[in-house]
Amino acid sequence: MIDSHCHLADEAFATDLEEVVARARAAGVERVLAILEAGNAAEAAQAERLGGLWPETRVSIGVHPHQAHQFADDPARATAIVREQFAATAAARAVGEVGLDYHYDFSPRDVQQAVFRGQVRLARELDRPLVIHTREADEDTLAILREEGGGVRGVVHCFTGSPALAEAGLALGFHISFAGIVTFPKAGELRDTARRIPIDRLLTETDSPFLTPVPHRGKRNEPAHVARVVDTLAELLARPASDVAQRTAANFHTLFRP
User: Fold this and answer.
1) Where are the alpha helices (DSSP H) in the chain?
2) pTM over 0.90
3) What does the alpha-carbon distance between residue 98 and residue 91 come to, in Å, rounded to a whole number?
4) Would you say 65 and 108 are in contact if contact means Cβ atoms under 8 Å apart?
5) Hey, is 187 helix, strand or coil?
6) CATH second-level architecture of 2-256?
7) pLDDT at residue 44, as a whole number
8) What are the angstrom distances between the C-alpha of 71 and each of 74, 77, 123, 180?
9) Could you report the per-residue pLDDT of 136-186, keeping only the tens digit for each?
10) Which of 53, 156, 209, 224 is least crowded, fewest Cβ atoms below 10 Å from its Cβ?
């Protein structure tokens, strides 16, 4: 299994990172893609520590839409920071998570869009995949990808959107990744969408420390729990869990070239 999106560089794991890694490996997790906030020195340091504990770890670096406001005066600076950190990080494999979030609107929408556009262009320049975050902004997210993507590959992470968004993402060549939300009792519509995703475009993730799956709700999420996502998808697709784990791991390798 692979956890294709987690935040192991977050301070939530600072005190027991070694134990978290040990539990993940014991659960059969081959590797993780750890998401780093560009320019965050504390996360970069913890990611380096993580790499020492788990050499198979790979990372993605980007400016999240929540932080886009920091670059309101010069959106191009966000791209420059990502480019510089990417070049200095041997384990870097993707640009992200990046995108648009109109639910919280922590950053002005025009600034989010400008910062996002710059990072889409950077992914194309580097020939690296994008890790996309989109919340209540699907139309604008897709428009920017169509206008700037030009063959860029990637993943719509922690998918919670409509079947139409899934179809549009697939048409753009993107993968679709499911997190613990797919295990929630009230996520019937999401499970219906998951059944429609081709097995060769499917990824699994935890988004830990967030979105802990059933039956671990109420506790901090961690990569070992990606097994619950795999099990749920296996039930939905009427496939053995071992097959789903193997196929989604192969998809990860194809996309991220780790």
Assistant:
1) 17-26, 41-53, 75-87, 109-126, 138-148, 163-171, 188-195, 226-237, 241-256
2) yes
3) 18
4) no
5) coil
6) Alpha-Beta Barrel (3.20)
7) 98
8) 5, 7, 19, 32
9) 999 999 999 999 988 899 999 999 999 999 999 999 999 999 999 999 999
10) 53
